[in-house]
Design goal:
The complex is a heterodimer. Chain A is mostly beta strands. Helices cover 0% and strands 15% of the residues of chain A. The longest helix of chain B is centred in the middle third of the chain and has 27 residues. Helix content of chain B is 58%, strand content 0%. Chain B is built from 17 helices and no strands. Classes of the chains: A mainly beta, B mainly alpha. Chains A and B meet through loops of A and helix 1, helix 9 and helix 10 of B.
Chain lengths: 55, 411
């Protein structure tokens, strides 16, 4: 399970943990999240522009 | 490489928030450090108004709020002028973690509600006539409107405490849905025709007002409903952040009516509408006519300095916590106000936001001052602006274009 990071504000999406507030259950792959979803913290970066962590 | 570097940087930025890094005060002093305390003059304006009326016996001082915001501040902006100084990069992390600046914003809220209670007591006392009561409502509306600016600063942060304070500050203007719509709606769609809170060239403030008030409310509701459906919960529930934020307003107004009598409610509503309208007039001028280009894949380009109107006028900047350094705010929404920077390439307004809101309510004056600035920003090509569709042909003709076709010939 990978972790993806918002290049603007550092918000981390961990596939293993999901994001309960955003409605993504633990284990939800990042690829399954809609392209139109934007970083919940800064709103600047769309999902396709997130970067894999430690990648 | 570039990506890794960017994310490391962002990561540091994130951690700076928790002050986990040892940071020594660098050899740089913040010229505005103590000026931020002046922001607390606004929430005490109703107290000053009351004091001035008591002292002089002149009833016009109930209108002190608009006299200061629309009269004194624009004049002071012209006299005191501008400040384009940016903190050097090396002090940014230190500047952001300094908690003093946060307390300058937190302190607004108790003063805001102190003056709200004072006003409710004065309205309920029956000593004020209708005109004086309306004057006081407008003065209190200035406080609740600028409280939305305080809420804006707090609502962009990651911490639960600051987000909660943001909603508290919004309760008085009934604009609790703002902290959802602004962060997740406006910031994503800024400077596009899809954004209700980005005004279009050719659109007067009076045409913008219903579109943004209605559109922002619908947008907030839809954003929250989408999120709740994804979580698999009912939209009408205590988990709906829009509903709970509005509930704060209902409780506040009901408590005020019980404590001071239902006859205060018309004035409570006047201050509410005036307050959120003050926010909307600021929204009107922040992105007027500006438009993000589309990329080849149909998505809009990322928000850049060219997509917000800025100003370095000191007085408005101090009273609005650097809101006028708006391009940096849209590029880095979590950045704290004291660390926001001026960009040379960002479009600049001719004066501070305080003066510009006075122009905004006078559409012919606004068009005269702003339309040519939008055209100049786009190098003379008005077709690149965000134009009100029903005025498009008129705007193009006025600026030397006969069709909507992309440029080539022209001015």
């Amino acid at each position: 399970m990978a972790v993806y990071v918002c290049p603007e504000c550092g918000y981390r999406y961990d596939e293993a943990a999901g994001d309960d507030r955003e409605g993504f259950a633990p284990g939800t792959p990042f690829a399954q999240i809609p392209d139109t979803w934007t970083c919940p913290d800064c709103g600047v970066v769309d999902r396709p522009d997130f970067a894999p962590a430690d990648g | 490489m570039a990506t890794t570097h960017a994310s490391e940087e962002a990561h540091d930025h994130h951690h700076a928030d928790h002050a986990t890094v040892e940071l020594n005060e660098p050899g740089w002093t913040d010229g505005k450090r103590y000026a931020w305390l002046l922001g607390l003059v606004v929430p005490v304006l109703p107290f000053l108004a009351w004091g001035l009326v008591e002292w002089t016996g002149i009833g016009v001082f109930w209108w002190l709020g608009p006299m200061v915001i629309f009269g004194l501040f624009p004049i002071l902006d012209q006299i005191i002028g501008q400040d384009a100084e940016n903190p050097p990069d090396r002090v940014m992390a230190w500047l952001e973690q300094d908690r003093y600046y946060r307390w300058c914003t937190y302190a607004y809220i108790p003063l805001q509600y102190g003056s709200f209670v004072l006003a409710c007591w004065l309205w309920g006392s029956g000593d004020l006539g209708v005109v004086a009561s309306i004057g006081l409502a407008v003065t209190v509306g200035c406080v609740s409107g600028i409280a939305i600016n305080t809420a804006h600063e707090l609502g962009h942060k990651r911490g639960k405490g600051e987000r909660w304070l943001s909603r508290v500050a919004l309760a008085q203007s009934g604009y609790g849905h703002f902290f959802i719509e602004h962060n997740r709606g406006h910031h994503v769609r800024v400077a596009t025709p899809e954004d209700p809170a980005s005004s279009r060239m050719g659109e007067s403030f009076w045409a913008f007002w219903p579109r943004t008030v209605h559109g922002s409310l619908i947008s907030a509701w839809e954003l929250e409903a989408t999120r709740l459906r994804r979580v698999g919960r009912r939209v009408l529930s205590h988990r709906n952040d829009v509903l709970t934020a509005w509930l704060m307003t209902v409780v506040l107004f009901a408590a005020a009516a019980i404590a001071f009598g239902p006859e205060i409610l018309p004035y409570v509503l006047i201050q509410m509408v005036f307050g959120f309208s003050l926010l909307e007039v600021v929204n009107y001028l922040e992105h007027y006519g500006l438009l993000r280009d589309r990329r080849d894949d149909g998505r809009y380009v990322r928000t850049a300095p060219g997509h917000s109107w800025n100003s370095n006028n000191v007085v408005s900047n101090v009273f609005l916590y650097h809101l006028q350094r708006h391009s940096d705010h849209h590029a880095h929404p979590l950045r704290r106000f004291q660390a926001l920077r001026h960009f040379d390439e960002a479009p600049q307004l001719p004066t501070g936001y305080a003066g510009m809101i006075v122009l905004a309510v006078l559409p012919p004056v606004w068009r005269r001052v702003m339309d040519h600035r939008v055209v100049e920003h786009y190098g003379g090509d008005v077709t690149r602006a965000n134009i009100l569709p029903r005025k498009r042909e008129k705007v193009l003709r006025r600026h030397g274009r006969t069709t909507s076709a992309p440029s080539g010939a022209g001015d």
